[in-house]
Task: inverse folding
């Protein structure tokens, strides 16, 4: 912890950054910390409870964070994919932000779990993760940890759904989405939902019904999935943020599989690799078109 | 009385719309269950259009535009092809029957192909019956 806290203190004292965004102990487990005073740098921690994808705070939509001044952000390997996405889409420039990479050996599913990382508690995003060190960082801290235990496999969840008859699948989603209260926590937490004005908030024309009703709920979740196709960094923060426990990240995970199989593209932590939607190949498969 | 489906066709202005016009002026026999919505390009067809059509009680949807290489905006249909690949798979994943959506390329000279697409889609939708599988679909009030 010491090197991390020292680094944060130095950055703040040098005036290089005005705020360090990291993790601290909170009332219910770990929570994001916004350190503006060098004396407070000792609050910063990093352990298996540091679930949050802090890349969401460098998204241009976060005016209230931007007003704090130039930020340094703690970054896990998976979070780097989200920052790469923002760079790729010119939402931020590399000089806007200082990236403090932390070596990560997996995180719990939620930030309020204490104890060691086990197959029961590990977050689904860590399944098969081979990235111990984030790409892109200006600074890198922490010891090289072992790989996380094998936990919930989202591919298996998707496969189980796809093995159902279509009507059963629709019944599953209708039941799940019926719980949706349209709080848009999934959108708010997402580092890559960057629109200044979301289509669901537009009223003329009103494309997506705003009431928490099956019709609008499905339209909203289809739209969210479609807009994140080939962009989603796979952090599954949407699912963690959902107060109703709807497995909304499955949509994104499913489309990531489609993008991989159909367009031969895996979301990269290299900002120079172009996104698959918005690009094309002339010989893309089109067996579904008559 | 046999079931007459309601089908919405989202077509591009340059190829399919002109092809449909040709089918009409050639007096080709065609099902009358298709309502055409003309757009500049398949690249302008947001998947939300399809969702909206189903929400408002469409039994089937056709999305059609210029053949690859023929786009009047050079590459709009290539982008649409990727987008609709994703959307079709997403519908499948949700369990909404993607058999109810037809994707086709119809050029301005392919009046006969347009008539075939319309007739085949109508027959297929007629076989599938009215679409009440879309959650919370508004039925009845759409003419």
Result:
């Amino acid at each position: 912890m010491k090197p991390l806290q020292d680094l944060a203190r130095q950055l703040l004292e040098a005036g290089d950054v005005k705020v360090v965004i990291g993790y601290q102990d909170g009332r219910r487990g770990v929570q994001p910390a916004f350190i503006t005073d060098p004396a407070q740098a000792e609050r910063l921690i990093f352990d298996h409870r540091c679930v949050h994808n802090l890349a969401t705070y460098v998204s241009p939509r976060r005016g209230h964070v931007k007003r704090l001044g130039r930020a340094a952000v703690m970054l896990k390997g998976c979070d780097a994919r989200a920052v790469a996405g923002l760079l790729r889409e010119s939402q931020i420039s590399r000089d806007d932000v200082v990236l403090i990479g932390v070596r990560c050996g997996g995180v719990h599913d939620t930030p309020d779990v204490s104890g060691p990382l086990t197959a029961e508690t590990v977050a689904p995003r860590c399944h098969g993760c081979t990235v111990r060190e984030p790409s892109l960082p200006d600074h890198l801290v922490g010891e090289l940890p072992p790989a996380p235990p094998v936990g919930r496999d989202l591919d298996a969840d998707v496969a189980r759904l796809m093995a159902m008859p279509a009507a059963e699948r629709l019944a599953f989603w209708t039941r799940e989405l019926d719980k949706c209260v349209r709080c848009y926590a999934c959108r708010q937490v997402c580092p890559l939902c960057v629109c200044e004005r979301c289509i669901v908030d537009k009223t003329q024309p009103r494309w997506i019904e705003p009431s928490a009703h099956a019709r609008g709920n499905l339209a909203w979740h289809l739209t969210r999935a479609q807009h994140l196709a080939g962009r989603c960094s796979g952090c599954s923060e949407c699912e963690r943020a959902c107060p109703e426990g709807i497995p909304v990240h499955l949509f994104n995970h499913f489309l990531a599989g489609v993008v991989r199989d159909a367009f031969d593209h895996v979301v990269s932590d290299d900002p120079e690799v172009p996104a698959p939607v918005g690009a094309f190949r002339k010989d893309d498969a089109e067996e579904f078109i008559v | 009385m046999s079931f007459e489906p309601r089908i919405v066709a989202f077509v591009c202005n340059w190829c399919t719309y002109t092809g449909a016009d040709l089918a009409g002026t050639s007096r080709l026999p065609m099902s009358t269950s298709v309502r055409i919505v003309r757009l500049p390009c398949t690249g302008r067809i947001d998947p939300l259009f399809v969702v909206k059509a189903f929400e408002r009680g469409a039994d089937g949807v056709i999305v059609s535009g210029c053949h690859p290489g023929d786009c009047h905006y050079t590459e709009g249909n290539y982008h649409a092809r990727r987008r609709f690949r994703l959307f079709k798979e997403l519908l499948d994943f949700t369990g909404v029957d993607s058999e109810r959506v037809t994707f086709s390329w119809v050029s301005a000279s392919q009046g006969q192909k347009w008539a075939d697409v319309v007739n085949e889609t109508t027959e297929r939708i007629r076989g599938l019956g009215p679409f009440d599988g879309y959650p919370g679909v508004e039925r009845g009030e759409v003419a």
Remarks:
- Strands of chain B lie at 7-12, 34-39, 60-65, 101-105.
- The longest helix of chain B spans residues 76-94.
- The mean pLDDT of chain B is 92.
